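Q: what sequence does this backbone want?
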């Protein structure tokens, strides 16, 4: 008779905890016992809109005792159409991100698509994001690591979770050890993503904290011609399942008027629904910790 293997209850928690935005009043520590949200509009639209979303998200993060990292992008280089909104640009974007950081004393994160942009945006952010579709690109990974910031590494839709070890190894070889690995769904045929929660466990075995991207995971890529559709109704179910799995962070994009969002209007969460989402996520997270 073969000896049965032990069934793990939790993800690997051997990673060393690290702090994002250590100089800020509302810095965030990524560890195995806390839940952090990485959230904000998909794209920076303007100064007032960024502050509207940031102020509400920070208020909710305090209410539910979760860490908060504000996320928004200055350059949406992956848009399907050249006619789509591609961002406010690095100069305006970095200024708005810096204003969020200083006003709310919270960490901020943004991604980049050109290696030369990494050192330009780094002084204004606390966590640098590698886009999913560039997660294998050595020049992007090297540029991210060279900033000295912790890295938010998103798993490509085309990648198996076990092959993320190669991207993580590259980052570590470039001197970065503080890496968050995020799942955002996997391609299943044409115009469809599926969510395999086993991928979170697989990536945690790389000794990295893991994050679940709740809004991109329900995307239907370019299913509406030059615009991606989405199945927003599944977000609450998937969030509950991911948090119950033991994730360290939850990523989602937010807008106060999704139909008129300048980027990803079919997948972003309405700001009014975030309260319920965090109530469920934080309750499940606390329950999970009590079982240890």
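A:
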């Amino acid at each position: 008779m073969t000896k049965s293997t032990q069934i793990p209850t939790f993800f690997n928690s051997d990673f060393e905890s690290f702090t994002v935005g250590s100089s800020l009043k509302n810095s965030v520590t990524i560890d195995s016992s806390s839940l952090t949200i990485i959230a904000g509009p998909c794209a920076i639209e303007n100064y007032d809109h960024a502050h509207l979303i940031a102020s509400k998200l920070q208020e909710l993060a305090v209410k539910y005792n979760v860490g908060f990292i504000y996320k928004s992008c200055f350059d949406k280089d992956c848009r399907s159409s050249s006619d789509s909104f591609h961002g406010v640009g690095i100069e305006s974007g970095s200024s708005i991100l810096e204003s969020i950081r200083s006003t709310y004393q919270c960490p901020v994160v943004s991604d980049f698509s050109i290696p030369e942009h990494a050192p330009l945006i780094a002084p204004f952010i606390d966590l640098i994001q590698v886009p999913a579709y560039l997660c294998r690109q050595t020049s992007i990974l090297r540029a991210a690591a060279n900033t000295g910031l912790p890295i938010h590494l998103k798993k490509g839709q085309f990648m198996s979770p076990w092959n993320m070890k190669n991207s993580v190894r590259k980052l570590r070889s470039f001197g970065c050890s503080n890496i968050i690995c995020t799942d955002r769904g996997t391609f299943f045929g044409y115009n469809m993503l599926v969510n395999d929660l086993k991928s979170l466990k697989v990536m945690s075995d790389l000794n990295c904290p893991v994050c679940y991207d709740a809004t991109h995971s329900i995307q239907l890529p370019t299913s509406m011609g030059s615009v991606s559709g989405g199945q927003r109704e599944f977000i609450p179910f998937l969030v509950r399942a991911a948090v119950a799995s033991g994730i360290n962070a939850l990523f989602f994009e937010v807008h106060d008027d999704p139909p008129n969002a300048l980027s990803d209007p079919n997948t972003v969460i309405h700001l009014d629904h975030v309260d319920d989402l965090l109530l469920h996520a934080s309750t499940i997270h606390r329950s999970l910790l009590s079982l240890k």
